[in-house]
Amino acid sequence: MRNDFGSLRLDGVTRRFGGPHGSATALDGLSLEVRRGEFIALLGPSGCGKSTALNCIAGLLPLSQGQIFLDEQRVDQLPPERRGFGMVFQNYALFPHMTVARNVGFGLLMRKVPRAELDRRVARALALVQLSDHARKLPGQLSGGQQQRVAIARAIVIEPPLVLMDEPLSNLDAKLRLEMRTEIRRIHGELGRTTIYVTHDQDEALSLADRIVVMKDGRVQQVGTPATVYAQPESLAVARFMGYRNELPLEATVDGATLRLAGPGIAMARPLAGTVATGPVVAAIRPDDLRFADAATAGDARLEATVEGVEYYGKESLFMLRTDGGVSLFARTVGRARAGDRVVVAAPPDRVLVFPREAAA
Ligand SMILES: Nc1ncnc2c1ncn2[C@@H]1O[C@H](COP(=O)(O)OP(=O)(O)OP(=O)(O)O)[C@@H](O)[C@H]1O
């Protein structure tokens, strides 16, 4: 078992599952290099192959094709215990009849670590997850968040070079989820090890990861820093997943240094920047990038619409709009408007993303 590594390399990792109607490819050619110390999030909708990828890395599922390397050593044919990665699952998988301390120490006991060292390491792991006072309790006496911390302590106590987490926060309520997010990031930082984290929650991926791997239908759609994936999705599929909920079917034309976007009842313009699609396009805009025109600045892309409904969220409201051409839109912003009002909404030009329409389906 390796104590640490410089990089983990996945090379065309593929996993197919057989079935009565032929085989289905759950993970299709995943190639990725993870550097020591990185926090990587595998992000994508249910069924996109995230858990399959994690289980292939852990050694719980054999690959149908491809290879996995730790530095120069090929590891994809090693059993899970010889890879020695720490795993944290969604359902904690704690032993209910064992105390917290015994749950955490179990992996060390299996590895025949001497008693004194075992006690010392368990105490250190419990301190790291801030559960020292609960060492003698049974899992059933702990809250969901505390149980999840036990699961994390159990994974890190073996001092794995790589920690794999599969939706570890999905069973917790919203408040605990936020607290545990901070905890997981802190623990990752303190240990200075490498983490691969599976989630379908964009906010979780954005707030935790150094790099995000966006997946769909078993394939990688984009790999990038949270800022890049959020602000510059490379495809409409990634944009949709990152919350670009408004999609306007428009025609794009270039007019000098301006990109004009037009459609039924819509005419928008933004400065031309980089290479953009022309002809039939989809303009994608996040609801929170739209604001009422009185708060807009010169150069914003504007469009007119009728308010169809309003949901109040305190500081902001979600306005449901419809353009004259019949396109539904959402704007999440401050300001007042009522159903039936005519409004002009605007977005900063760099927040209007343009994708070719034929690739949009
Ligand atoms: N043991 C299996 N046998 C057959 N098909 C499977 C098996 N495990 C997963 N699949 C299929 O492979 C695809 C990817 O599944 P996977 O669990 O990796 O997705 P996921 O992104 O983790 O989804 P979720 O977030 O819902 O767990 C799905 O279509 C799933 O139905």
TrEMBL record:
<dbReference type="InterPro" id="IPR003439">
    <property type="entry name" value="ABC_transporter-like_ATP-bd"/>
</dbReference>
<dbReference type="Pfam" id="PF00005">
    <property type="entry name" value="ABC_tran"/>
</dbReference>
<protein>
    <submittedName>
        <fullName>ATP-binding cassette domain-containing protein</fullName>
    </submittedName>
</protein>
<dbReference type="GO" id="GO:0140359">
    <property type="term" value="F:ABC-type transporter activity"/>
</dbReference>
<dbReference type="GO" id="GO:0055052">
    <property type="term" value="C:ATP-binding cassette (ABC) transporter complex, substrate-binding subunit-containing"/>
</dbReference>
<keyword id="KW-0472">Membrane</keyword>
<dbReference type="InterPro" id="IPR047641">
    <property type="entry name" value="ABC_transpr_MalK/UgpC-like"/>
</dbReference>
<dbReference type="InterPro" id="IPR008995">
    <property type="entry name" value="Mo/tungstate-bd_C_term_dom"/>
</dbReference>
<dbReference type="InterPro" id="IPR013611">
    <property type="entry name" value="Transp-assoc_OB_typ2"/>
</dbReference>
<keyword id="KW-0813">Transport</keyword>
<dbReference type="InterPro" id="IPR012340">
    <property type="entry name" value="NA-bd_OB-fold"/>
</dbReference>
<dbReference type="Pfam" id="PF08402">
    <property type="entry name" value="TOBE_2"/>
</dbReference>
<dbReference type="InterPro" id="IPR003593">
    <property type="entry name" value="AAA+_ATPase"/>
</dbReference>
<dbReference type="GO" id="GO:0005524">
    <property type="term" value="F:ATP binding"/>
</dbReference>
<feature type="domain" description="ABC transporter">
    <location>
        <begin position="8"/>
        <end position="242"/>
    </location>
</feature>
<keyword id="KW-1003">Cell membrane</keyword>
<dbReference type="GO" id="GO:0016887">
    <property type="term" value="F:ATP hydrolysis activity"/>
</dbReference>
<keyword id="KW-0067">ATP-binding</keyword>
<keyword id="KW-0547">Nucleotide-binding</keyword>
<dbReference type="InterPro" id="IPR027417">
    <property type="entry name" value="P-loop_NTPase"/>
</dbReference>
<dbReference type="InterPro" id="IPR017871">
    <property type="entry name" value="ABC_transporter-like_CS"/>
</dbReference>
